[in-house]
Specification:
alpha+beta
Length: 233
């Protein structure tokens, strides 16, 4: 589906990397892409990284600094990241946010932290809704014989490429290509569209602030928004 279609909202693809899959996990990376426009933000988490999550994503925290594959990364506070995300989304005139398996996890985490910082109302004014590409792919590829609908497997099967999964920026760039290849119809998009208000946010508990509540203020703000030309790819 080409997000340039005049009768459809723009699409923005997003993904979160978190400290784990538990109900009190925190965000360590937030990435989004629409055409050639990208956003990539890192945060020092306010709770401990789960060892399993560290092995999968490559994120670790040492002495209150975030590392990705043993290299330090510049970070934002979580509030700064959320405000930057809202600002990024405003560029696209109330886009549709697309992510893979987001209804059962990413959106719950996002809704909780937006509530925590009083930003949920502002966020909802800049998006038209959400689309989970997991059930959409299951519908579109139900007769394909595909056994696993994990994003990494779908990208390899449908597009014939491999990529660095579990890095939020790589994930959203791959998902955008996959979504355009799947080319869902307007009715299929509408069928799988939902809003934050339809979620059961009670399933995800707020993270407890760390003892160093001004921790992220020690690090340089790094909002990586790149605009490569005025035309979408």
């Amino acid at each position: 589906m080409d997000s340039r279609a005049t009768d459809s909202p723009r699409t923005v693809f997003f993904d979160l990397e978190t400290t784990g899959l538990g109900s009190s996990c925190d965000i360590v990376q937030l990435a989004a892409v629409s055409g050639s426009h990208t956003l990539n933000l890192f945060m020092v988490p306010r709770c401990r990284m789960d060892p399993g999550a560290s092995r999968v994503t490559g994120f670790r925290v040492r002495r209150h600094q975030l590392f990705l594959h043993r290299k330090p990364v510049l970070t934002n506070s979580l509030r700064e990241a959320l405000v930057s995300f809202i600002t990024f989304l405003r560029m696209f005139g109330r886009p549709l946010l697309v992510g893979h398996n987001i209804r059962r996890f990413d959106c719950l985490v996002l809704a909780r932290v937006l509530d925590e910082f009083g930003l949920k109302a502002a966020f909802q004014t800049v998006v038209v809704g959400f689309l989970d590409s997991l059930p959409l792919a299951r519908q579109l590829l139900k007769d394909s014989g595909i056994q696993s609908f994990k994003q990494e497997n779908l990208v390899k099967t449908v597009l014939g490429i491999s990529y660095a999964a579990h890095n939020a920026l790589s994930d959203v760039q791959a998902l955008q290509k996959l979504y355009w290849a799947l080319s869902p119809s307007a009715s299929q998009i509408q069928h799988h569209t939902f809003s934050l208000d339809t979620l059961n946010t009670a399933a995800v508990k707020p993270s407890k602030p760390p003892a160093h509540n001004n921790l992220c203020g020690r690090f340089q703000k790094a909002v990586s928004i790149t605009v490569e030309g005025n035309r979408e790819v």
